[in-house]
Specification:
The structure is a single chain. With 433 residues, the chain is α/β, with parallel strands linked by helices. The chain folds into two domains: 4-69 and 334-429, Aspartate Aminotransferase, domain 1 (Alpha-Beta Complex); 71-319, 3-Layer(aba) Sandwich (Aspartate Aminotransferase, domain 2), CATH 3.40.640. The protein contains 14 helices and 16 strands. The chain has helices at residues 4-16, 71-81, 92-104, 117-132, 172-175, 186-195, 219-231, 251-256, 282-285, 304-319, 322-343, 370-373, 378-390, 411-430; strands at 38-42, 45-48, 53-56, 110-114, 136-140, 153-154, 164-165, 178-181, 200-205, 235-239, 262-265, 276-280, 350-354, 357-361, 393-394, 403-404. The strands form four sheets. The protein has a seven-stranded mixed sheet, sandwiched between helices. Helix 11 (322-343) runs parallel beside helix 14. It is globular. The chain binds pyridoxal-5'-phosphate.
């Protein structure tokens, strides 16, 4: 049996870890079946505990943009580990990583390191509230900003109604300060800002969404959002946990030509170790403790081990900007190849892509927000996911996730992926429900 050892490890894990996983999407709940347990990875490939190998299109959900076990990153971690992993004191490497990140990203003067994207977004909105003296935030349905209470909110019935918790354990009190808007709907945001005039501290957005599949911002929407925020004296927070250092050295701000007020990072900035960060101009960052009144802290924040991985990663990206052109070419080839396979079939599909973020939705209409993303054919997606997995292609186990290509991926890997898709077409056509 192809996944025998993974199956038994999953059985065992479920006894001791809720659902057998430490982050829900890993459990394959939306696609069914047993999650694959990975033993090791190198370059573009994952190797599981049953001896199967996979071309990896997740890259650890984004961080490993240069591929797995990249020599410079691994050497930096090993060298650093031998000198001790954390001291609870300032270290020089924190400043080195801060300087480099600020040099690569437009429009930020100072940066604070945390341990995850969740922490970065949670802290960013606290800072926005402290800075503006206002309580409410606007977020977009289908955007994910980590699992802190303020973001686990779903839309109420109209623009003027408050949100309500999307998870038990989040209080109504918290929910009433989070307002929801549909992605790519500027008029809706304008209506919210009017209705809640003087109460909104920040609008937070994934400038290119990657948590409802990949959804691109409409040009007028994202530029209009910047204008609206300025008009209403509301901070625009770009959650670049996915897009930062991935779409370009300067992230979505650079690609879209928009300056946000606060920018959140995670994933690539940690080189595969747990790092998040948030950054802004000095005037805003001065509100943070110990300089200012907004409290934020972390025992392991900026620890030298994690910083060494992040620094090696950003140094490699900064030295060789060609990486972004290579990723663009590979991603464009993959998307074009998928289209040419699927165009010969009766299958309705949409491919959304910006740079090395791609998603495939089995639906006839353009996917522009959460509602249109949710109309995809689930049975077909599940057949696609498992069919590709069985052929050694590791895709995100949910239609609501983006692929993240990495620089280790070869043209031959892309060919192999397209051949697998081609082989799978009859099975996909058979899921016409
Ligand atoms: C992954 C992600 C987060 C959360 O980061 P964690 O490190 O998983 O806490 C926040 N925002 C976006 C856009 C993400 O993709």
């Amino acid at each position: 049996m192809r996944y025998q050892r993974s199956s038994s490890l999953f059985q065992e894990a479920q006894k001791f870890i809720p659902g057998g996983v430490n982050s829900p999407v890993r459990a394959f709940k939306s696609v069914g079946g047993t999650p694959v347990f990975i033993d090791r990875a190198q370059g573009a490939y994952l190797y599981d505990v049953d001896g199967n190998s996979y071309i990896d299109y997740i890259s650890s959900w984004g961080p490993l943009i240069l591929g797995h076990a990249h020599t410079e990153v691994i050497n930096a971690i090993v060298d650093r580990a031998q000198k001790g992993t954390s001291f609870g004191t300032p270290t020089e490497i924190e400043t080195e990583l801060a300087k480099l990140a600020i040099e690569m990203v437009p429009n930020i003067d100072q940066i604070r390191f945390v341990n995850s994207g969740t922490e970065a977004c949670m802290s960013a909105i606290r800072l926005a509230r402290g800075f503006t003296g206002k309580d409410r935030i606007i977020k977009f349905s289908g955007c994910y900003h980590g699992h802190s209470d303020s973001f686990l909110i779903q839309a109420g019935s109209g623009a003027v109604t408050f949100g309500y918790p999307s998870s038990p354990g989040v209080t109504q009190g918290t929910a009433k300060d989070t307002l929801l808007a549909p992605y790519n709907n500027l008029a809706y945001v304008a209506e919210l800002l009017e209705a809640h005039q003087g109460h909104v501290a920040a609008v937070i957005i994934e400038p290119v969404a990657g948590n409802m599949g990949c959804v691109l911002p409409d040009h007028d929407f994202i530029h209009g959002l910047r204008k609206l925020c300025t008009q209403h004296e509301v901070l625009l927070v770009f959650d670049e946990v996915m897009t930062g250092f991935r779409l370009a050295a300067g992230g979505a701000q650079e690609v879209l030509g928009i300056q946000a007020d606060i920018v959140c990072f995670g994933k690539v900035i940690g080189g595969g170790l747990p790092v998040g960060a948030f950054a802004a101009r000095s005037e805003i960052m001065a509100y943070l403790a110990p300089l200012g009144p907004v409290y934020q802290a972390g025992t392991l924040s900026g620890n030298p081990l994690a910083m060494s991985a992040g620094l090696a990663m950003l140094q490699a990206l900064n030295r060789d900007r060609g990486v972004y052109d290579r990723l663009e070419k590979k991603s464009a080839d993959l998307a074009a190849g998928m289209s040419s396979v699927l165009d010969k079939t009766s299958i309705d599909y949409q491919i959304n892509r910006l740079g090395s973020m791609i998603s495939l939705h089995f639906t006839p209409e353009p996917v522009v927000d959460f509602t249109t993303a949710a109309r995809g054919n689930n049975a077909r997606f599940n057949a696609y996911f498992h069919g590709m997995l069985d052929r050694g292609i590791y895709l995100p186990p949910s239609a609501f996730e983006s692929y993240f290509l990495n620089d280790a991926l070869s043209q031959a890997d892309i060919e192999k992926t397209l051949n697998a898709l081609d082989e799978l077409v009859p099975a996909l056509e058979a899921t016409n429900v």
